[in-house]
Amino acid sequence: ASQVSSKVKSNSAWYSASSFSSSVPAVKLFIDGKFVESKIGTWVSIATNEVIGRVPQATKAEMDAAIASCKRAFPAWADTSVLSRQQVLLRYQQLIKENLKEIAKLITLEQGKTLADAEGDVFRGLQVVEHACSVTSLMMGETMPSITKDMDLYSYRLPLGVCAGIAPFNFPAMIPLWMFPMAMVCGNTFLMKPSERVPGATMLLAKLLQDSGAPDGTLNIIHGQHEAVNFICDHPDIKAISFVGSNQAGEYIFERGSRHGKRVQANMGAKNHGVVMPDANKENTLNQLVGAAFGAAGQRCMALSTAVLVGEAKKWLPELVERAKNLRVNAGDQPGADLGPLITPQAKERVCNLIDSGTKEGASILLDGRKIKVKGYENGNFVGPTIISNVKPNMTCYKEEIFGPVLVVLETETLDEAIQIVNNNPYGNGTAIFTTNGATARKYAHLVDVGQVGVNVPIPVPLPMFSFTGSRSSFRGDTNFYGKQGIQFYTQLKTITSQWKEEDATLSSPAVAMPT
Ligand code: NAD
C-alpha cells in the first residue's frame, strides 16, 4: 500500500500527502487557478484493490468559490480572440500527447483498466481536443446579403457563459475531454465535477491546460457526489450541463437541470447487441465479440454485452467460450493483462447478483468468472469473463445493463427476429452486425432503431468530426456531444439584421406597417 500511495503522492500538485490525521493522500480542488485542499472531513475512497487515495466532497463555500471564479473569468475569456483560444488548445493537444503515458498510468492506478486500454482512453479524448482546434471554422455563423434593399442578415455563434460537466468513472480522461475543451474553445468557462472514483486524470489534465495558457478561473474543478450534483443543477449562473453516466443519475440531472432553465445533454446507459449472421467471417467475428464484450472488464457504455446468434451461427458458441477463457485477468499495470478489476466491491457484488439471476431464471452459465482469484491482488474487485446462454428478453440479466465482463447470448432463426429484439430493447446506444453480405448489412443499418451502428465494427464510436449519437433511453437532450453538435450545444445564436442606406434614400415618414 505504501508503495502505491507514494506513486500518488508524487503527483503533489493536486494531492496533499496527508491530512485530517490520515496517511492516505487526499486529492485537492482546483479553484481560480490553484490546487487547494478541501476543508471538508467527508471522503470517498479510491480503491479497486486497496485504498490509494481519498476524494473530498467539496463544501458549499468551496463550490460557491469555484462558480464565482468561473463567472469572473467569463467576460475576458469570451472576449479573447478566437485565434488566441485556438492557440491555447493547440498547445494543449501537444501537452496531452507528450504526457499521454503519464495520464494513462494515473488512470490504471485509480480505475484499474489495463495500461494499453488507458492509453486508448486518453487518445480518444485527445482527438476531441484536436477537433476543438478547428473552432475557427466550426464556430462560423451564417450570412445572407441583400435580403432587401441595403439590408443584410447575419448570425454569430456566441458562448453561453458558465457551463458544467459531470463525468462517470469508466473513461477518466476521454469523457472530461468531451466536455471542457469544446466548451472553452467556444469562449465559455467551465466547472468540472469528475467522477469521485477517478479524479486524478482530470486533475493532471487541468494542470496541462493551465500550462497551455488557459487563464485562471476558465476551468474550475470540484469533487463530490449528490450535493455537488444538486449544486450544479440548481445554480443560476450555470447555463448548460453535460452529463455522462448511468440512467438513474442522468434522468435525475436532466429533469432537475431543465427545470432550472438549463440546457442539458445526458449520455446514459446501454445494452449493445452484436448480431452475428452465419455468413460472417467467423475468425474475425469471434475475436471482435470477445474483445468488445470483455475489454475494460465490460465497463464501457459501448461494450458489446449481448450477442444475438442467427441461424447456424449458434454453432460457434463453444469456440466463443474457448476464446473468452483464454483472456488473462490481472491488475491493469501487470504485463499481459487483458482485463482488470471492477471499480468497487459494490460493482462486483451487483455483477455477481445479475449472473446469479440468470441461473435462477433458466439461463445457462457457459463460463463463470464469479469465483476468480488473482494472485497478489486478493482484495481486488475481479470478475472473470462470463458467458450466459439461453437468455430470453424477459430475463433480468438481459433487461439490466450489467457493466461487467459478462456476455449474454440470445439465439434467433432470422435477421428479422434479431432486429425485432434489438428494437424492443429500450436502449439505443450502439449495435453491430457481422456479415459478409452487403444487402444484409444495409437492411440492418436501416431498420435498426439504434443511434450508432457498426458493420463488422464491434464498437462504433464516431470520431469527433461526427457526434456521439446514442438514442432512445441512452440519451436525453437534443444536441449531442462533440462534432458540430457539440459546438451548437455550447453556443447560442445571435442574428443581426443590418441596414446601411445611401444618404439620399432616407425615410421621409414613419413606416408603421410590417415590412413586406
Ligand atoms: P454514475 O451515474 O454512477 O455516475 C456518474 C456521475 O453522476 C458521477 O459524477 C456521480 O458522482 C454522479 N452520480 C451518481 N449517482 C448519482 C445520483 N443518484 N444522483 C446524482 N448524481 C449521481 O455512473 P458511473 O457508474 O460512474 O458510470 C457508468 C455508467 O455510465 C454506465 O451506465 C454507462 O453506460 C454510462 N456511460 C455512458 C456513456 C455514454 O456516452 N452513453 C459513456 C460512459 C459511461
From TrEMBL:
<dbReference type="InterPro" id="IPR016161">
    <property type="entry name" value="Ald_DH/histidinol_DH"/>
</dbReference>
<dbReference type="GO" id="GO:0050873">
    <property type="term" value="P:brown fat cell differentiation"/>
</dbReference>
<comment type="function">
    <text>Malonate and methylmalonate semialdehyde dehydrogenase involved in the catabolism of valine, thymine, and compounds catabolized by way of beta-alanine, including uracil and cytidine.</text>
</comment>
<protein>
    <recommendedName>
        <fullName>Methylmalonate-semialdehyde/malonate-semialdehyde dehydrogenase [acylating], mitochondrial</fullName>
        <ecNumber>1.2.1.27</ecNumber>
    </recommendedName>
</protein>
<dbReference type="InterPro" id="IPR016162">
    <property type="entry name" value="Ald_DH_N"/>
</dbReference>
<keyword id="KW-0520">NAD</keyword>
<dbReference type="InterPro" id="IPR015590">
    <property type="entry name" value="Aldehyde_DH_dom"/>
</dbReference>
<dbReference type="InterPro" id="IPR010061">
    <property type="entry name" value="MeMal-semiAld_DH"/>
</dbReference>
<dbReference type="GO" id="GO:0004491">
    <property type="term" value="F:methylmalonate-semialdehyde dehydrogenase (acylating, NAD) activity"/>
</dbReference>
<dbReference type="GO" id="GO:0006574">
    <property type="term" value="P:L-valine catabolic process"/>
</dbReference>
<dbReference type="GO" id="GO:0005654">
    <property type="term" value="C:nucleoplasm"/>
</dbReference>
<feature type="domain" description="Aldehyde dehydrogenase">
    <location>
        <begin position="45"/>
        <end position="496"/>
    </location>
</feature>
<keyword id="KW-0560">Oxidoreductase</keyword>
<dbReference type="GO" id="GO:0006210">
    <property type="term" value="P:thymine catabolic process"/>
</dbReference>
<dbReference type="InterPro" id="IPR016163">
    <property type="entry name" value="Ald_DH_C"/>
</dbReference>
<dbReference type="InterPro" id="IPR016160">
    <property type="entry name" value="Ald_DH_CS_CYS"/>
</dbReference>
<dbReference type="GO" id="GO:0005739">
    <property type="term" value="C:mitochondrion"/>
</dbReference>
<comment type="similarity">
    <text>Belongs to the aldehyde dehydrogenase family.</text>
</comment>
<dbReference type="Pfam" id="PF00171">
    <property type="entry name" value="Aldedh"/>
</dbReference>
